[in-house]
């Protein structure tokens, strides 16, 4: 009674009436607002570059006339808010100007690179989830209430090491073993399906290990709950105890961590694509930042940031689907 | 204090603690020593020894300028570690300030800042750092700064959430009531309580920073030639992975070892802080107490639903035996109350009957018969069937005993589906029927709902309904009304009473509240320190209890009829810890009647009349009619 | 002479359609040197009322007076002197495991109370004297809360509150987290302290039998309102409100 108002249970209804429209509206609104903040941050980033960004990019030896001409083409001499409006409009109409270095339209660059990166990240994510969730659940069951110290130690050390080894280091190790020593898989580049194997494993290992650890801890928590004791007191078969009573209660945590894993996977593409010379956004991002090709970097900031926001949105909605109570909490 | 400090030191003696300590000393030692000893070897260009493989001269070969790879990797330790530490310190300072700011700012601004922090935590720090590099430029300084800024949100959120939890605690409320100043509250109460998680997080962050900085250097954003850290070495060596693999693999190994070291150190720090290291190999010897004999073979065995003889529950890991030789029986249609304080072993006794003692507890008994079958001798499947149908348990907290993610109807129906082979439809119909039987309004609708929509009293009714799915011969109710309001309590007690009467089931009713027990039970078992110390009919509870503990318990409870001018009776001291049981009577240290003899030998539980047993050397002589002489015999 | 008076106190949480009224227009008086028992079930608003009196929950309307002087009122922030006077009302919380700072020794915790007492009314109490008052061994001064049992912690919390030399003590379910055999000792202690120090007590509990043992007057709360107030004997023996009667009937008493 000292707590604030508890949500009244009787308002809970599944289905698409009740709190759902409010919930979805609020989530979408939050996403849109975050996107605007993100775009503004990307725009602000360029204008926070000390000195003249064009001279910065073209180098100190660039002819003043060329610099001035480039500034004019990019509209950098216009008032700030005009530039801002143009930038936002460009994002919406998928027309973000040209690269300073290659003079190719940024939109074209992005259209070419995005599928490679998304393909890599998606494959790695699926692999991570498919391996980690069952593994974590089984480990959680095996080590519940402090059972089986051996399994516990083995599981935590193996997943611990994999969650620590950075993806690019793992990538180098994999290349050394499978490409250099045994010569069974390609060293780099995107060619056939076999070219996916090493980068996908390098990307997936860390997030998978992290996810498996969290699922195990969550499984242990859920298995210690009173309602699991109730289920055991009913002498239900193990299948029902774990799948019906335990699993749904750890989905929320698993989804949350999966979302984080996907975000960190996306960040990992930068390094892994660099190791494997993968023709994706991450690899290009490194080169564009180093060459200060800011129109491209701006677009990439929006791409990566937008992906993270989209993942968060998807996780929130999915959690609401599997656990209707969270909809009530939100509204 | 004693327990926790030794627990803290013990963490450092575990294999994890020892190996972490060794690694940490090694990494720091190399960082300090290597540049002094190997500095020249690592940087002298030797044209004669370019790109060599392994040799005695150069253990892991040389780089394209003829420099020793191993020496370069070891020397790079210092720069790599120092940069990681600086990054962490900057990230921590910025993050802690940002996390504390919302408490100082106004409500609106504070919320905006918290929202910003929460949003930026979602972005992987490496990605943030790359974009920040646009502004801060490349190089070691830029990398440290950008990464620190990118990692700061993590610290900010940790600071904010732990501080918010501490700020909302009762002890802060108490300090505010004492008009303790804001600054002092922050310094004396909040900071000390959030420092530990922050320090632990910082330790781990050194590891993550080291890994991320290596990544940045590898990409060309961090340390620039001629300086070198591991990331730089890796990026230089990767091109020659076919010719001199060590050029790439050595820095990889160094990055992994050092990263692992700091992350393990964070893990160990967590354990030290929470003091929850397992103390292994220190299990104390189990104190064995004299086993109480069963009073006598009372009544015809036919209607005995539960017979327990010499039941013990032992936890070998802790070296404790919280239930020590308990014997009793429950007959059909009877309500037996079990009373005791927390730690008396009453709930574990019930758990042992239902085979629900938590791991690694060991249950032993000479007899454990449920509905005429010795549960211990049954095969697993048969035991599950007997326990699933003959026994039902109602637990204390109905808010947590029902699964929040499963519809109430299904939680009831699955009992009949599994044990009685009912069809889905029949089981669902039975569930609705049982919900109706426990007076839940509109049971069809309620069966389709989740427990979240039920009030506490309704949930407990649903639990009782669940216990009726399979016509059990014994219902164990473990503190079933403790979590409920008194007016709701009444209804639940009445319902349990009806259930016993209508179905001729037996009820084992466990409670710490002797008044509640007296309202429903006909016979009472009083437990203390893992043993039954008295068994008596409820009618004898108020005026005719034999054990001093029972008498004190009865007298210490405020009652609507008691004289308000007199102080409440109290029992000095507290129950013995399960790992420090006295040799003699376990109640002797608190007993006003105890003498030397009581402290030397534990009294056996002896019969002193029909349905009456007591374990006391000095029960009042006027209790329960003529005294059995069995009690005198045992005393040496 | 110190009287705690609540006038038309309203506490609400949330706003708009989600607003709930936890305390609904409550008037209550705790006379000098008296114990008023506040009894009710969960959700009745009794703990929120206590928190509102000490300023831990905001008043929507109404005021709290000490000796006829307004020390708290809705929407208005009182000046410092008045707020300091608020410290003459102290509170002991339900859960002794969360109401003591886990990193502060018993002595340090109590010292905070002593400092408050010295600042506000030049009270000169000592840690030793206070430990003695709550019947704790003076050696306990250097212990941390985790080294104490629940009953001992509750005594420390009591000592800290008394250190400020309060006029009014609010005890919010102070025995409900304790074991039965410990509960009686804490209740006896509270009664002795009241006699020794003359502090007025607002004693909150869900257990009518416990309230009856301590209180001179009893207020019964339900749904945020006080539904019955009167002399303790009269309320427990001749209740006028039907809800009070239900409550009395529901109290589990030993079957004699």
Folded structure, characterized:
Chain A: This is ABC transporter permease. Chain A: One of its GO terms (cellular component) is plasma membrane. Chain A: The chain crosses the membrane at residues 31-49, 118-141, 153-176, 196-215, 250-279, 299-322. Chain A: Residues 114-315 form the ABC transmembrane type-1 domain. Chain A: InterPro entries: BPD_transp_1_N, MetI-like, MetI-like_sf. Chain B: Keywords: ATP-binding, Cell membrane, Membrane, Nucleotide-binding, Transmembrane, Transmembrane helix, Transport. The complex is a heterotrimer of chains A (331), B (636) and C (256). With 331 residues, chain A is mainly α. Chain A has a domain at 106-290: MetI-like (MetI-like fold). Chain A has helices at 20-47, 53-58, 64-74, 80-93, 106-142, 149-164, 167-181, 194-223, 226-233, 238-275, 281-290, 294-322, 325-330. In chain A, helix 7 (167-181) crosses helix 10. The longest helix of chain A is centred in the last third of the chain and has 38 residues, at 238-275. Mean pLDDT of chain A is 84; it is low at 1-16. Chain B has 636 residues and is an alpha/beta fold. In chain B, the strands form two sheets. In chain B, strands 7-8-9-3-10-11-13-12 form an eight-stranded mixed β-sheet, with helices on both faces. In chain B, strands 1, 2, 4, 5 and 6 form a five-stranded antiparallel β-sheet that branches. In chain B, helix 18 links the parallel strand 8 (474-478) and strand 9. The longest helix of chain B has 38 residues, at 182-219. Chain B is elongated. With 256 residues, chain C is α/β, with parallel strands linked by helices. Chain C has nine helices and ten strands. A six-stranded mixed β-sheet of chain C has the order 6-7-8-3-9-10, with helices on both faces. In chain C, strands 2-1-4-5 form a four-stranded antiparallel β-sheet. In chain C, helix 3 runs parallel beside helix 5 (150-163). Chain C is globular, with a radius of gyration of 18 Å. Chain C starts with a strand and ends in a 6-residue tail after the last helix. Chains in contact: A-B, A-C, B-C. At the A-B interface, helix 1, helix 6, helix 7, helix 9 and helix 10 of A face helix 5, helix 8, helix 10, helix 12 and helix 14 of B.
């Amino acid at each position: 009674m000292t707590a604030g108002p508890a949500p009244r249970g009787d308002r809970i209804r599944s289905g698409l009436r009740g709190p759902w429209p409010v919930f979805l509206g609020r989530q979408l609104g939050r996403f849109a607002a975050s996107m605007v903040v993100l775009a503004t941050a990307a725009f602000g980033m360029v204008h926070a570059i000390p000195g003249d960004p064009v001279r910065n990019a073209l180098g100190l030896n660039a002819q003043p006339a060329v610099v001035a001409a480039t500034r004019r083409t990019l509209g950098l001499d216009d008032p700030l808010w005009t530039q801002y409006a143009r930038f936002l409009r460009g994002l919406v109409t998928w027309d973000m100007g040209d690269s300073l270095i290659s003079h190719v339209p940024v939109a074209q660059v992005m259209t070419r690179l995005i599928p490679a990166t998304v393909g890599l990240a998606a494959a790695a994510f699926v692999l991570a989830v498919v391996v980690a969730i069952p593994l974590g659940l089984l480990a959680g069951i095996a080590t519940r209430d402090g059972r089986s110290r051996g399994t516990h130690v083995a599981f935590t050390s193996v997943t611990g090491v994999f969650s620590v080894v950075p993806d690019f280091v793992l990538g180098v190790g994999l290349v050394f073993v499978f490409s250099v020593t045994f010569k069974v898989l390609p060293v780099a580049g995107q060619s056939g399906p076999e070219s996916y194997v090493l980068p996908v494993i390098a990307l997936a290992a860390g997030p998978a290990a992290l996810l498996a650890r969290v699922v195990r801890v969550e499984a242990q928590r859920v298995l210690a709950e009173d309602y699991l004791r109730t289920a055991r007191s009913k002498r239900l078969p193990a299948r029902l105890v774990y799948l019906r009573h335990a699993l749904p209660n750890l989905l929320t945590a698993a989804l949350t961590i999966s979302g984080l894993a996907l975000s960190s996977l996306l960040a990992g593409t930068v390094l892994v694509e660099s190791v494997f010379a993968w023709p994706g956004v991450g690899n290009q991002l490194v080169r564009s930042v180093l060459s200060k090709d800011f129109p491209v970097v701006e677009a990439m900031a929006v791409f990566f940031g937008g992906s993270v926001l989209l993942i968060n949105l998807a996780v929130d909605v999915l959690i609401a689907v599997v656990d209707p109570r969270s909809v009530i909490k939100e509204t | 204090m004693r327990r926790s400090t030794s627990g803290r030191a013990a963490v450092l003696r575990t294999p994890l603690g020892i190996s972490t300590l060794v690694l940490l000393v090694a990494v720091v030692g190399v960082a300090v020593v290597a540049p002094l000893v190997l500095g020249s070897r690592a940087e002298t260009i030797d044209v004669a020894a370019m790109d060599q493989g392994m040799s005695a001269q150069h253990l892991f070969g040389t780089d394209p300028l003829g420099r020793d790879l191993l020496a370069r990797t070891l020397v790079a330790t210092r720069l790599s570690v120092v940069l990681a530490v600086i990054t962490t310190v900057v990230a921590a300072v910025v993050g802690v300030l940002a996390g504390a700011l919302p408490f100082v700012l106004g409500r609106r601004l504070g919320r905006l800042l918290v929202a910003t922090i929460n949003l930026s935590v979602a972005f992987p720090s490496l990605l943030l750092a790359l974009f920040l590099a646009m502004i801060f430029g490349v190089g070691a300084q830029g990398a440290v700064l950008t990464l620190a800024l990118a990692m700061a949100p993590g610290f900010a959120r940790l600071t904010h959430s732990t501080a918010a939890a501490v700020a909302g605690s009762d002890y802060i409320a108490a300090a505010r009531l004492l008009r303790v100043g804001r600054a002092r509250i922050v310094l004396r109460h909040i900071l000390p309580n959030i420092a530990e998680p922050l320090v632990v997080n910082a330790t781990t962050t050194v590891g993550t920073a080291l890994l991320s900085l290596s990544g940045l250097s590898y990409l060309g954003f961090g340390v620039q030639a001629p300086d070198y850290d591991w990331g730089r070495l890796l990026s230089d060596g990767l091109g020659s992975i076919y010719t001199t693999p060590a050029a790439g693999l050595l820095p990889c190994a160094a990055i992994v070892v050092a990263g692992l070291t700091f992350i393990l150190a964070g893990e160990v720090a967590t354990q030290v802080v929470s003091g929850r290291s397992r103390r292994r190999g220190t299990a104390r010897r189990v104190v064995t107490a004299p086993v109480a004999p069963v009073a006598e073979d009372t009544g015809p065995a036919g209607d005995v639903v539960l017979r327990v003889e010499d039941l013990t529950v032992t936890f070998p890991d802790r070296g404790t035996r919280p239930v020590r030789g308990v014997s009793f029986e429950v007959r059909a249609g009877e309500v037996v109350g079990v009373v005791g304080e927390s730690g008396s072993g009453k709930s574990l006794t019930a758990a042992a009957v239902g085979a629900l003692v938590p791991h690694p507890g060991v249950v032993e008994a000479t007899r454990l018969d449920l509905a005429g079958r010795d549960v211990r001798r049954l095969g697993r499947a048969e035991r599950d069937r007997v326990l699933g149908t003959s026994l039902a348990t109602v637990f204390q907290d109905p808010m947590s005993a029902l699964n929040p993610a499963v519809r109430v109807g299904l939680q009831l129906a699955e009992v009949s589906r599994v044990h009685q082979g009912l069809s889905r439809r029949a089981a669902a119909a039975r569930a609705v029927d049982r919900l109706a039987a426990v007076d839940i309004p509109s049971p069809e609708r309620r069966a389709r709902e989740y427990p979240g929509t039920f009030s506490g009293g309704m949930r407990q009714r649903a639990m009782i309904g669940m216990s009726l799915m399979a016509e059990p011969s014994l219902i164990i109710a473990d503190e079933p009304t403790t979590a409920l309001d008194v007016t709701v309590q009444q209804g639940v007690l009445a319902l349990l009473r009806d259930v016993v009467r209508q179905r001729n089931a037996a009820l084992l009713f466990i409670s710490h509240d002797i008044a509640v027990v007296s309202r429903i039970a006909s016979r009472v078992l009083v437990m203390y320190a893992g043993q039954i110390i008295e068994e008596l009919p409820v009618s004898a509870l108020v005026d005719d209890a034999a054990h001093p503990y029972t008498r004190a318990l009865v007298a210490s409870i405020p009652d609507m009829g008691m004289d308000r001018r007199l102080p409440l009776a109290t029992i000095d001291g507290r129950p013995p810890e399960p790992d420090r049981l006295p040799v003699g009577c376990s109640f002797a240290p608190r007993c006003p009647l105890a003498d030397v003899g009581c402290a030397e030998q534990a009294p056996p539980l002896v019969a002193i009349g029909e349905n009456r047993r007591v374990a006391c050397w000095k029960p009042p002589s006027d209790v329960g009619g003529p005294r059995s002489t069995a009690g005198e015999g045992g005393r040496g | 002479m110190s009287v705690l008076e609540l006038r038309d106190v309203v506490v609400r949480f949330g706003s708009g359609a989600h607003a709930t009224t936890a305390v609904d227009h409550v008037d209550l008086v705790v006379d000098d040197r008296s114990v008023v028992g506040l009894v009710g079930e969960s959700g009745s608003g009794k703990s929120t009322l206590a928190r509102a009196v000490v300023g831990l929950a905001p008043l929507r309307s109404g005021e709290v007076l000490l000796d006829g002087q307004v020390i708290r009122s809705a929407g208005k922030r009182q000046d410092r002197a008045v707020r300091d006077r608020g410290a003459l009302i102290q509170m002991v919380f339900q859960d002794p495991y969360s109401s003591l700072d886990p990193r502060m020794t018993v002595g340090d915790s109590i010292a905070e109370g002593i400092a408050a007492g010295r600042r506000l009314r030049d009270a000169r109490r000592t840690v030793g004297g206070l430990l003695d008052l709550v019947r704790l061994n003076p050696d306990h001064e250097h212990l941390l809360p985790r080294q104490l049992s629940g009953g001992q912690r509750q005594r420390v919390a009591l000592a800290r509150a008394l250190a400020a030399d309060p006029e009014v003590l609010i005890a919010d379910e102070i025995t409900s987290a304790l074991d039965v055999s410990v509960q009686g000792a804490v209740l006896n202690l509270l009664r002795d302290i009241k006699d020794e120090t003359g502090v007025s007590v607002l004693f909150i509990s869900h257990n009518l039998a416990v309230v009856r043992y301590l209180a001179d007057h009893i207020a019964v709360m339900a749904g945020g309102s006080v539904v019955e107030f009167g002399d303790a004997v009269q309320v427990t023996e001749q209740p006028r409100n039907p809800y009070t009667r239900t409550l009395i009937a529901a109290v589990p008493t030993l079957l004699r």
